[in-house]
Amino acid sequence: MHPAKAECDRVKHLCEEPALQTLIVGYGSIGKRHAQNVRSLIPNAELTILRHRRPPGSDPASAVAARVVYDIQDALSYSPQLAIIASPAPMHIETAIQLANHGVHLLVEKPLSDQLVGIDELLSICQARKTVLLVGYTLRFSQPLQTVRRAIAEGQIGRLLGIHAEVGQYLPDWRPHADYRQSVTAQQSLGGGALLELSHEIDYVRWIAGNVRSLHATAQTLSDLEIDVEDWAELDLQFESGVSGHVHVDMVQRFPVRCGKAIGTHGTLEWDLMSQQVHINSIDSDSKVKLGNHSGTDRNLIYEELVRHFLDCIEGNAQPVCTGADGRAVLEIVLAAKKSAQTGERIDL
Question: Which domains are delineated in the chain?
Answer without folding.
Answer: 3-138 (3.40.50.720), 141-295+323-348 (3.30.360.10)
